[in-house]
Amino acid sequence: MFNAASPAQLDQALSRHGISLKKSLGQNFLIDENILKKIIEASGAQKGSIFLEIGPGAGALTQKLCGAGAHVVAVEIDRALIPLLHEALQGMDAKVICQDILKTDLDALYESELKRPFKVCANLPYYITSPVIFLLLGSGLPILSMTFMVQAEVARRMAAERGKDYSPFSIAVQYHAEVRQIARVAPTCFMPRPDVASAIIRLDMRKEKTVRVSDEKLFFALVRQSFAMRRKTLVNNLSAGDWGLGKPEWEQFLAACGIGPSVRAEEIMIKDFANLSNMLYKMLNSIQQPLNNA
Q1: What CATH code is assigned to 216-293?
Q2: Residue 134 to residue 131: CA distance in whole angstroms
Q3: Whole-structure pTM over 0.85, yes or no?
Q4: Residues of the chain with pLDDT under 70
C-alpha cells in the first residue's frame, strides 16, 4: 500500500505499474492533504456510512473515506488504474468496479453493492461533470448527499440563483438538492496541474422539492426554452416554443404573472419558473378540455 496523496509515492507507484496519465479522461489526481480533509469533513464520512465514489483515480480520496470508517464502492473507467487501486486500497473496506459510470446500470449496482441509502463523493473529471450529476439526480436511488470536486465555474453555476452563471443546470440541481459551496481549490493541489481552479461543493438531496410543480416535464421544458437564447427576452424565447402561443399571448400571460416584457430568463428565480409552469399547465389544460369533451 502507498499514500496516494503523496506526490513522491504516487509518482513511484505510477512508474511501478507503467501508467501514463490520460488527459482525455481528465486524470488530475488530488495530492493535497488539507483539501482531502475538507472533502471528507464536508461529505460526513463516518463509521458505517456507504459511499459511491466516481473516478477514484489513484485512490487518494478512497483511502481517506475508508480511513473515516466508510465502506466505498468505487467505479473507475480506466482499466490501467485497477492494479494501482488494488495496491492503494489493500486491506481497506473498498470495492473497485471497472466501468464507465455513464453506462452503468445504477439500479443493479445499488441492489448488488450499495443496498441501502448512500452518499456520493468524487473528484469528478471535468468533461463528465454535468452528465454525471444529471444521471444521479434523475436516478431515483436513495442518495443522501453528493460531495464533489468540480471546476470552479461549474460550482458557481450550480449555486447561482440569478445572473450570468444562472442556467437550466442551476435550476435542475437546485430543484433536487440544496447546494453548498465548501471551498475553492487551486490547481497546485493536483498532479498534473489542471488549467483552471476547482471547488468543493455539496448537494444535499431534498426530501421535499423546494418548489411544487404540476408537471415536471413541462416545468423543465419551460426552463430550457426560456434560456434558449440568453440575450433574448423571456417573451421572445417562449414565443419560439412549441406551445401554440404567439408573442401577444405570451406577453399577456407573463403580464398576468407579474413579469414585464423586457425581463430575461436569468432574472427569474426558480420559484417564479414554478409559478409560470403551473399557470401554463392550467391554461393549456383549459384549452384542451373543451376538445376532449367534444
Answers
A1: 1.10.8.100
A2: 5
A3: yes
A4: 287-294
